[in-house]
Design brief:
It is a single chain. This protein is of the alpha+beta class. It has one domain. The longest helix is centred in the middle third of the chain and has 9 residues. The chain has a four-stranded antiparallel β-sheet. The chain is globular, with a radius of gyration of 11 Å. The chain has two helices and four strands, in the order βααβββ.
């Protein structure tokens, strides 16, 4: 959980972003993306609790998303 990146538009629905692009767009750490990149996953985000965004990883749009912050570091 955490504040949304500054350039992220307000949306209640998740946005799917290919991880390499997400790393460039949102300046996410290489460590945070490495495992997901190897698995070809996508990054999603959604608004929770009114003002907090949470990142999710999922294989494709039809899969259920896993919270990115619950993945092993």
């Amino acid at each position: 959980s955490g504040q949304a990146p500054r350039d992220l538009p307000w949306r209640a629905e998740p946005e799917m972003v290919p991880l390499p692009e997400a790393g460039k767009r949102f300046h996410l750490s290489v460590e945070a993306l490495t495992a997901a990149l190897k698995n070809g996953r996508f990054l999603t985000w959604r608004l929770e609790h009114g003002s907090q965004y949470r990142w999710y990883l999922q294989e494709k749009a039809s899969d259920s998303a896993q919270p990115a912050d619950s993945q092993p570091k």
